[in-house]
Amino acid sequence: MSTILVTGGTGALGRHLTERLRTDGHEVRVLSRHSRPYAVDLRRGGSTLDEAVTGVDTVVHCASTPRGGDEQAAENLLAAARRAGVGHLVYISIVGVDRVPFGYYRTKFAVERLVEESGIGWTVLRTTQFHDLLLTVFEGLGRLPVLLLPSRVKDQPIEVTEVADRLAELAGGGPAGRVEDMGGPEVRTLDSLARSYLRATGRRRAVVRVPLRGAAYRAFRAGSHLAPERAVGKGTFEEFLAARAGRGRVGE
């Protein structure tokens, strides 16, 4: 089995991926800003990053933030990987990054290009949004007496553990380039998903659809972030909510 470094290995996706890789028999190193011994801020790089990639066969790059810095982080990671002779880098991206003019999507697309041009064998997997993200959004919006949602926008949420399983499969193989997208099992309107959240949490909120402006909103409204032809996910949003409720983690 191989030695695999997972960046963002303590995050929602990284935790599941790390567990799956270890179950498969790989030696796994976890890199994040606070995980020892490889506590690294990728935006700054440094000697600990070089130590983390030394002797690694494959890097799975899951670390990302909408607060900025992803491109610099990727440049530092790729430079360290080249110095260490890493043979394969797997990057997790988002469906529609090349079609939706939204700031975070543009950054993800820019990182894809850095990976492709790095000189390292690469694999890129794009997925639709995780169930966890929708839950976070609805929890935030649910603090108001009225739940405001962009009108005429749909989503196709996917279970994060299914993405972790696919990433583990890709990490265990060789560079495959841009692989087929992964989408959740259903394309749903945001308000229908929000109503499922409200039922699961027992909250009472009026759901109000608000028209927005701008190119990004038009792209989301057109479904440029969806992959209905790749609806390979199995777990539904309602099943995700039920599982979280069973662990006492919905509507906390």
Overview of the structural elements:
- With about 250 residues, this protein is α/β, with parallel strands linked by helices.
- It has a single domain (about 5-245), classed as 3-Layer(aba) Sandwich (Rossmann fold), CATH 3.40.50.720.
- The chain has nine helices and ten strands.
- It has helices at about 10-25, 45-55, 70-85, 105-115, 130-140, 160-170, 190-200, 215-220, 235-245, and strands spanning about 5, 25-30, 60, 90-95, 120-125, 145-150, 155, 175-180, 190, 205-210.
- The strands form three sheets. It has a six-stranded parallel sheet, sandwiched between helices.
- Helix 3 (about 70-85) links the parallel strand 3 (about 60) and strand 4.
- Helix 1 packs across helix 6 and helix 7 runs parallel beside helix 9 (about 235-245).
- The longest helix has 15 residues, at about 70-85.
- The chain starts with a strand and ends in a 6-residue tail after the last helix.
Outline type? globular
| CATH topology category name | Rossmann fold
Q: SSE order in H/E notation?
A: EHEHEHEHEHEEHEEHEHH
Largest sheet: 6 strands, parallel
Radius of gyration from the alpha-carbon trace, in angstroms: 19 Å
How much helicity do the residues have?
Answer: 25-40%
Mean pLDDT: 95
User: What is the name of the CATH superfamily?
Assistant: NAD(P)-binding Rossmann-like Domain
Q: Which CATH architecture is right? A: 3-Layer(aba) Sandwich
Main CATH class: Alpha Beta
User: Which class of secondary structure composition applies to the elements?
Assistant: alpha/beta
Strand content: 15-25%
Please count the beta strands (DSSP E, at least 2 residues each): 10
The CA-CA distance between the termini, in Å, is 40 Å
Strand order of the largest sheet: 2-1-3-4-5-8
Count of DSSP-assigned helices: 9
Protein name: NAD(P)H-binding protein
Domain NAD(P)-binding: 8-132
InterPro entries: ComplexI_NDUFA9_subunit, NAD(P)-bd_dom, NAD(P)-bd_dom_sf
Pfam families: NAD_binding_10
